[in-house]
Design goal:
The structure is a homodimer. By secondary structure, chain A is an alpha/beta fold. Helices cover 44% and strands 13% of the residues of chain A. Chain A contains 17 helices and 11 strands. In chain A, helix 12 (274-288) links the parallel strand 7 (263-268) and strand 8 (304-307). The radius of gyration of chain A is 24 Å and the shape is globular. Chain A starts with a strand and ends with a strand.
Chain lengths: 462, 462
């Protein structure tokens, strides 16, 4: 992996770039950031995941093989951090039409992540899979996630109807080590769930059983995921800004935020990395979007992540990125070696002015478009950086994910906020409980049902 | 369709909302906006598409039937506006696991949109389809789009190899009526391509043959698409702000932009509308992201669209939306009636504290979560609006798309910019040509290959 930050600087993008004086001013915080990152290392239990899971990795690998031996489909029931890591690993390392391949061409089960409660979406899945032949991995750290519990209840009922009393055979659970509904169910039914360790929040859980069970079912070598993360960790624990890419990323983004860049675009040039951009969007948004700083001051911090895909979104977003406001940082992600080399052949007809493409490859085209777009946004004075992965595989992908986790934690320190909580989602959860009639939420239900003042002139019926 | 703008106002969200004084000031522009929208109606040829295509709709419907009778797969080769409308129609109206259904359960062909040049992505498609059994719809208004031409060349070569000289039988073309490579090829091979009419830019082309051929292959009634668009058009041509939802949307977004909201989130609560949010992202970004206004002043206009999905992104983005900066407008999109009613049954085990969900439905859950999230972001003082579609079908979806087109055009007038060009993508296109060795671009190639000044301290190898 290679990261080039040069296009964040005024030397590359001109007046809207970061000056060396700004770098030096913010770099003064690095010792304090590094001290905090070091002191809080144990609290950030996700940092130990690449090192302390050898036994669990063996167990999960066996489990993955067992699942592939006994089922046709594997379905993750989870949402947010319980889903996004699996999705990133899936499309980032496997065939891009995996579920449409024949069984012999796959590592095992068809692979689905169900991270919504859209009735049509759930029904659509059940229209194409036989529950009896499906293993469901139910993931909720709290064990109380309303979406996942609803899915779980539907699946349990369906399994009981189709396969009878042995329905728990089709269920794998991952939850907290002690508390929550899922843990209680596991205790009651004598199941041994996988554990999301304390200190591993959903968005930092990809290398815990939350993501590893998926990896095993997909036939990935879990040790290679650890290896990639360790490679990133080695660099991202250095004290020196110029040796630590996570600190550099965090620092430059922090300066950019202070200069008015409230948008962080991640734009990979690879279909398989679209879900990695989704994963980053949760990581960056939930970690840094905070009302209060650590001293209790109201700051309304946060940079809005935007998920783009090259080259596709050149024909959707690049007009805005080049000509629009100076309000964003673009992180391009390129891949040096795709699995496929795809020639552009001389076709059986005369393609006239397009004949310059004959004999070239899509590989050269996508690389050229990435370079061309980097050039165009840089010329337009927009800050950007370039991450280059040598290939799409478990080592490189995991390295990239762990780098981003470290960068996010460091950004929390630069911003002086708590990157590991999410108090802002409580209000919506409570309102959902109230609207669904959960007991104990009657007062909130009353508040929500009281008519709100509204101006009918601002309501349109078409 | 119903649109409630109340949560844009300070009466709902407090100090960061729009005041009636701000509404009145901006509303003063409405007569001029309306005059311009009326005067430019003929230039905006996309506005006539719901009215002037009866003959072509019949032809395309026949073509769709013929394709479904003769092929197993239908593949759109296009990018940007040539792809996004088809994707929105596909997932917005059809089964959410359409390609995994058996043939008898589908309207016809499996349906794919190939809008990237990722070598692994293209290879993945060819791993699962037989080109001989596949109809390819090649779409490029200019006829010169490098991505689409590359895909086309690969497909032509593959078809010739597999089915011999009759390879053009598997090709449908849509392009300009006179110029470009695709038009020349059509003339040389005696084909009759479908036409993207003048005045119909890619991002406004969903109701032209660009999207209609897909609709026909998907078994949609094209007249229902026209009907929906006409319903929107009827309201969106009114002169009065309080009768015209497109003007209201455009005006409130314009005021929000002036108040520092440089982000426009579209967050539908329906899996099928995720691609509609993608479609909107192109429409809004490319139309309004402009360096110059109509008088030639540098303005760097534009609001960055963010594509979110409810409820999924509640567990990814809502922490930021509630606690983060006051820098965005959220357009929620709800669906009143899904095709499926999905009960949450009493499962065969005791789910303890989750038992309040028993006997309810996912439909109630997703509606409650939407209401709860609207409540939470409104309480947090963040501007938002609520679009409600009665169902997901061709009429409602087309009505929504056409409303958004009219709103975008009107926003161009409020901002005083040209919403219909995209000069900012030229630099990247030219650089791509140069890097791919197209003749005539040698000077640019030389410029691009000259070493750039860079500081090695800002480059990291991991």
């Amino acid at each position: 992996m290679r990261i080039d930050f040069n296009n964040m600087l005024d030397t590359a993008v001109g007046e809207h770039g970061i000056t060396m004086a700004e770098v030096e001013a913010e770099a003064a915080k690095v010792p304090a950031v590094h001290a905090a990152m070091t002191a809080k290392k144990d609290e950030m239990a996700w940092r130990a995941l690449p090192y302390n899971q050898d036994a669990i990795a063996r167990d999960i690998t066996d489990k993955g093989n067992w699942i592939n031996d006994h089922f046709q489909n594997f379905v993750v029931l989870g949402i947010g951090g319980s889903a996004l890591g699996s999705k990133a690993l899936f499309t980032g390392t496997k065939h891009l039409r995996y579920n449409e391949l024949k069984r012999a061409e796959r590592a095992g089960c068809r692979f689905y992540v169900v991270d919504n409660v859209d009735p049509d979406g759930i029904q659509a899945l059940f229209d194409i899979i036989d529950p009896a032949e499906t293993c469901f991995h139910v993931i909720s750290k709290s064990g109380n996630t309303v979406e996942t519990m609803s899915q779980f209840m539907i699946v349990l009922h369906m399994l009981k109807e189709t396969i009878g009393d042995d329905f728990m055979r089709n269920i794998v659970l991952t939850t907290d080590k002690e508390t929550g509904i899922l843990r209680n169910i596991a205790n009651a039914y004598n199941m041994t769930p996988y554990v999301v360790p304390d200190g591993v929040g959903g968005r930092f859980s990809v290398l815990s059983p939350v993501g590893l069970v998926s990896a095993a079912v997909l036939g990935l070598d879990i040790q290679m995921l650890f290896e990639g993360a360790r490679k990133a960790d080695e660099k991202c624990t250095k004290s020196d800004l110029y040796e630590n890419p996570a600190y550099m990323y965090a620092m430059l983004q922090t300066i950019a935020m202070h200069k008015g860049c409230n948008i962080s675009v991640m734009m990979p040039y690879a279909d398989g990395l679209a879900n990695t951009a989704e994963w980053y969007a949760q990581l960056w948004a939930e970690s840094l979007g905070k009302q209060y700083d650590l001293s209790g001051e109201i700051v309304h911090a946060g940079q809005t992540p935007v998920r783009a895909l090259g080259v596709t979104d050149q024909h959707s977003q690049i007009q805005l990125y080049t000509e629009g406001p100076f309000d964003k940082v673009i992180t391009f992600v390129g891949v040096e070696n795709f699995d496929t080399v795809m020639p552009i052949p001389k076709p059986p007809i005369d393609v006239q002015d397009a004949s310059y493409l004959e004999g070239q490859t899509l590989n050269k085209l996508i690389a050229s478009e990435l370079a061309a777009t980097e050039y165009a946004v840089t010329q337009a004075g927009k800050m950007n950086m370039m991450v280059t992965l040598s290939e799409l595989g478990p080592v490189e992908l995991s390295e990239f994910l762990f780098f981003l986790e470290m960068a996010t934690a460091a950004a929390g320190e630069f911003l002086g906020i708590n990157a590991f909580d999410q108090p802002g989602v409580e209000a919506g959860k409570i309102a959902t409980f109230a609207l669904m009639g959960r007991s104990g939420y009657e007062e909130k239900a009353k508040e929500l049902s009281s008519p709100k003042a509204q101006n009918d002139k601002f309501i349109f019926e078409l």
